[in-house]
Amino acid sequence: MALRRIALLAFLAGMLSHGAGLLAAPEAELEAVPVQVERESARHSAEGTVEAVRDTLMTAQVAGVVVARPAEVGLRVRAGEELVRIDPRAAEDQAAASAAQVQAARAELQVALKEYERQRRLFEKAYISEAAFDRARAQRDAAQARVAALEAQAKAVRTQAGYHRVTAPYDGIVSEVPVVLGETALPGRPLVRLYDPGALRVTAVAAQSEASTLVPGGTVDVEVPGFPVLHLPAERVQIFPAADPSTHTVQLRLALPSEVHGLKPGLFARLSWRSPGTGEGRRFLVPASAVVRRAEMTGLYVLDRDGKPILRQVRLGRTEGERIEILSGIDEGDRVVTNPERAARVR
């Protein structure tokens, strides 16, 4: 019995030591690397949005029922192509009535002109009085004025009738059509939104101190997730002359090259550039595999003094191959875990 008890105790001790080894295994298997620090001129960045230089929201100028809607979201259209048509029948009838009034007034003008010529000849021969000649001249002038007034009215009616047909002002892409067939359009109601994909820009906001570091001769990097980084001259950046008094920020605007394809208004964009001069700055780089993304949080597992992984929230910068820049959240000397899945299991 004593031998069996000794053997059982030895077995239990072995199991406990084996279990302790299993618990320590994840921690022992953690792979960590020091944060890479690169010395360079200070780098600045400003976050913004891709915008279309020509982005047009067309609204109704007349009231009526929408009877045709050829425009669809995402459709490429040509200048002059019909996008929405409002029932034009009442306007067409009014235009026809105006045209008929113009014809009648012109006929009356012809009669008045002939009568004026007859009265003029008679007046020159002294067969009629000057008062009778003045009446004929007044009737001619009145007929001419009536024709001019009715022609202007008919032109206005034709222009008003043209508002029932909404056309594209330029080649572009339809981005929004907030009406459907059968709806009643009222003056001021949005009908179609159109933008020109060949003329895009980035509008960003930067602190006034950072905006002052944009000088001619430098380079501005434009980063849009999912697209290659663009390197553009700093001279292309337009700095607005007025700052926001509540945030003390300045708006920046950078026109994108027309040969860039695939970008759309509303995409996130980041502008970044280096400060001029010889001032030294630091860049922190870590392996891209070390980044942890959980919902809206982005972080890194950093080893503390005891070698335990601590999840720390960070702000990401540019991706350079298999490395990624960390703008905030870590410091020189930190050791970052490169296999965050194992670090998440360590207690």
From TrEMBL:
Coiled-coil ranges per UniProt: 99-160
Sorted UniProt keywords: Coiled coil, Signal, Transport
Top-level lineage group: Bacteria
Annotated signal sequence range: 1-24
Domain Multidrug resistance protein MdtA-like C-terminal permuted SH3 residues, every copy: 285-339
Pfam family name, one: BSH_RND
Multidrug resistance protein MdtA-like barrel-sandwich hybrid domain: residues covered: 58-188
Family listed: Belongs to the membrane fusion protein (MFP) (TC 8.A.1) family.
The protein's name in its UniProt record: Efflux RND transporter periplasmic adaptor subunit
Organism whose genome encodes this protein: Tepidiphilus baoligensis
